[in-house]
Amino acid sequence: MSGPDIETPSPIQICRIMLPDDASVARNMIEEVGAIISTWPCNSQNRDHCVATLARVEHTYFLWPMCIGEVAHISTEITYTSEHSVEVQVNVMSENILTGTKKLTNKATLWYLKNVDKVLEVPPVVYSRQEQEEAGQKRYKTQKLERMETKWRNEDVVQPVLNPEPNTVSYSQSSLIHMVGPSDCTLHSFVHEGVTMKLTDEVAGIVAARHCKTNLVTASVNAINFHDKIKKGCIKTISGRMAFTSNKSVEIEVLVDANSVADSSQKRYRAAMSLSQEGGSLPMPQRLPETQNEKKRFEEGKGRYLQMKAKWQGHMVPQP
Fold this sequence. Notes:
This is palmitoyl-CoA hydrolase. This protein is of the alpha+beta class and 320 residues long.
């Protein structure tokens, strides 16, 4: 690998063979390669050193499964920079080293902020066409508004309910508690965002399995917003609940609370994840909204589902 030039950022690629315990390696490697390419430009000039912090993951598509023994090729490039943030596009290819067959398995868009303890300016890049910069500015404004919207809604809390009825939100909602250890963190003692992504995926899978009582796979991630960094030693509570169900898929909303053992501060992330049944041949039990808030989230989820379905079908390219 080689670092990108500031004016013409070059794509980078990393690869590794898939092992039995690599269930979430694609998510972790997507975050790692994005952090590498977004950190390089700001440390290539005589200025304060900084490490890029993941602020938002959006438009993540899980197009095809990746099997044990295959080689994962993760490539990334910088597609837009604002004054304080960087947009990174990541593609994941799988390769069967016996047959030579390759296929696109994952696509993701990530936004990074240039900060660890303070926000720094991002060196501008030169675009080959004016249309690229204008399209990037539009994407930047859209993601910023969506990220701020989830931050305003951070008062939502997933509360347990005694003796809930089947197929209701309360029946399948689930939580995990995780202590942040050294192996979860970067050299600066902040949590790898890939670790949080893995835990949110696990909770979403539990919620979906409780509701459907069958095997499921993650089809896509609508968005994950990281509003604050989580430090080593914090206790994370990851809570998931259903937002929407279609005939063959279910959208799960996940909240992550981080409580510091040393003080009373509390951090929260928000994610909306869409999971579909494995094989897609069984009908999905329909969610039964009970409260006005649940009905509102259902309608919001239905809108996201229709948009995501159209985008996902557009990215689903037939493989040889």
